[in-house]
Amino acid sequence: MSEKAIKKTKLLLLALLGVVIISTLVIWGCGTKGYDNPAAVSAAKYYANDATVNTMIDPATVNRWVTQGNKTDDGKRVVILDVFPNDTDTDSWFAGDSTLIKQQMITQYGGTLSPQYKMIDGLKNANLLGHIPGAIPQVSHAGYEVATRNDGPIETEHEVGTGAYIDQMLQKLGVNKDDVLVLTTSRYDYPGFCSARLFWTLYYWGFSRNNIKVLNGGNKAYAQAGFPLETGKVISTITPSTFSVTQLGQKHLDARISIGEMIQLVDSGATNQTTGSVVVLDTRQPPAAYYFLDQDNNGIPDAFEIPGYTMSKNSTEGLYFVRNSDGRHVTLSELLFKETTPARVAFSGSSNPPITLPNAFIGITAPAGPNPNGGVPLSFPLGNKAAAFEGIIKGAKVTKTGTYNITVPSLCKPDGVSYLDQAAMKSVFATAGIDGSKPIVVYCNSGALASIYYYALHEVCGFQNVKIYDGSWLEWANMAAYEPTDPTYVMNDDYTAYPSYPAPSPSVVFYAASNKYLEWDGTQFVDSFTKQPVNGLVKKGGALGGNTFWDTAHRSEHVMFRPLGSLTYTMLTSTPNSSIAFLYNNKTYSSLTDWAPIVTHPAYSGAGSEINNTDKAYTTPAGASSGSSGPAPFIPKGGGC
């Protein structure tokens, strides 16, 4: 080869080498997996297998991680969060202090005769009180996980916490991005509510499902599996972190539905059970259809006038009946289900409806109206938070009817606290016509109980399109532009009884008398049973001042108003015990829960999804320190988180 040819070849090789080097640099520097896009690499790793991972964890695995020094099998740090609703639960339930727990049960459930009070000694004797060693207490209603927020037309408590508040919560807990969080609870009168709510909150803000685990059955299942719980207020030293949810690669804001979206679904007909495209499930329970008879028409339920018993009440025991033969204090549950053989009221947990009618003391409300002889129940649940009216969102299913039962106990294994497996869970929901073929929206009083159903449907069943209506009944039932003019369509008082007393489950709700309900016929309210207009018994007003644009009462079914303080209700003055005459006022007004003062914005003209907009825009940490305080604690008034 000539010298000229050799030089030409060398130049060609050098040129080719230059092309290779330049191409390599371009690929290295500009590719989506290169050093200039580490966020994409980090996110891909963090969310690997996120769509298929099992978020439920069993007690044996948690115990193994505890014995490994709070490390997973592949060496990740484990943070066990014991989640409960109130600050005081740290000293009581978390610490396993039965005396303090009993004091709470007296306050919350009305006295020492409540089944919730009576169950505590049994839990203590079975060594089921306390927390998993190394667990950190997490108060779910202390202003970080939830907050008072505004989707546009109304300020509502218990909405999902802002990004800044969630950052504060996680920093206080010392949580870092790659930690695996195990969510459990030491509180047994709220089985699984708060753990499921925290799971949903973390998922909403972008946590990988790889990194959030729910202990199936909570601390009770852990202890029953033979692993000891720790008692006392023993809390490990926490080193605050600087972690922010803005460090996560994505958010799952579509796990939540706003008030604006909920109204749009109702108005479009999407919630119609027959022709609609969405399943809406009201998870409050138990649905109520039974009422006490008053066959002598003296204004007092016959069940309160059983010969040989005198009704009474005090601050320690709550409502009870004195058995005149020996002075023993008997609960309403015992009076109806335990005091005689056969029982005064026959109950069967395997029947639906569960109470045999006709009965001397009980009637049932059917679609055609009150019926003392029985029939298919017209049942729907009651709220226990602040509200202007009761009912259900138009088109919503309830958790129990005469044909199916999907209440919480039906979602659990025989231990009453552990979720069913996927096949069994799907089978239960199928009885109610819920199979994941349509999007599902769940709600409850304040979004906590609904979280159990979100977890069961989304995580156990694997249905992908499941959302929580976060405002729930606490928001929906306060957006009223109508109010009653007299007590006709005001609800009667309700009483809860426990057929298996002193066991707290199952439970049955009885109204003091039969109620009248309202339906919206497209232009006006009509009586649910007669279908006749109510002719002035309802007027515009309410918290929205008569502005019906955001009104939810006319977008609901089976409406009855809560007692309104400005109305006069009949109160008997001649009773078997004149010192407790107030017990026979069947429409009792409470300023704490009935038409409570709220902040509304009736003139708001946006889409009603302001929280989504705010949370979507949260991309830069707010700079809150771990010592910052959140909003005022929200304390539930009983009946659920």
Description:
With 641 residues, this protein is of the alpha/beta class. Among the domains are: 51-252 and 611-616, Oxidized Rhodanese, domain 1, CATH 3.40.250; 290-378 and 479-584, no CATH class. The chain has 14 helices and 25 strands. The protein has helices at 3-30, 38-46, 59-67, 98-109, 115-125, 163-172, 193-204, 218-224, 259-268, 332-337, 422-430, 449-460, 472-476, 610-616; strands at residues 56-57, 78-84, 136-139, 146-150, 155-160, 180-184, 212-215, 256-257, 279-282, 290-292, 309-314, 318-323, 329-330, 362-366, 369-371, 389-393, 440-443, 466-469, 482-484, 494-497, 508-511, 518-520, 525-527, 538-540, 556-561. The chain has a five-stranded parallel β-sheet with strand order 1-7-6-2-3. The protein has a five-stranded mixed β-sheet with strand order 15-14-10-21-20. The protein has a four-stranded parallel β-sheet with strand order 8-18-17-9. A hairpin with a 4-residue loop joins strand 4 and strand 5. Helix 3 (59-67) packs across helix 8 (218-224) and helix 7 packs across helix 12. The N and C termini lie far apart (89 Å). The relative contact order is 0.14. Residues 618-641 are annotated as: Disordered.
Radius of gyration: 28 Å
The first-level CATH class of the domain at 51-252 and 611-616 is given as: Alpha Beta
> Architecture of the domain at 51-252 and 611-616, CATH level 2?
3-Layer(aba) Sandwich
Quaternary structure of the protein? single chain
- Which range best describes the helical content: under 10%, 10-25%, 25-40%, 40-55%, 55-70% or over 70%? 10-25%
Low-pLDDT runs: 4-34, 624-628, 630-641
Q: CATH topology of the domain at 51-252 and 611-616, which one? A: Oxidized Rhodanese, domain 1
Q: How many runs of DSSP E, i.e. beta strands?
A: 25
Q: What's the N-to-C terminus distance? A: 89 Å
Mean pLDDT: 90
Largest sheet: 5 strands, parallel
- Strand order of the main beta sheet, please? 1-7-6-2-3
Number of helices: 14
Shape: globular
- Helical/strand content category: alpha/beta
Instruction: Determine the strand fraction and express it as a percent band.
Output: 15-25%
Determine the CATH superfamily of the domain at 51-252 and 611-616. Answer: Rhodanese-like domain
InterPro entries: Rhodanese-like_dom, Rhodanese-like_dom_sf, Thiosulphate_STrfase_CS, TST/MPST-like
GO molecular function: thiosulfate-cyanide sulfurtransferase activity
Organism: Geotalea uraniireducens (strain Rf4) (Geobacter uraniireducens)
Protein name: Sulfurtransferase
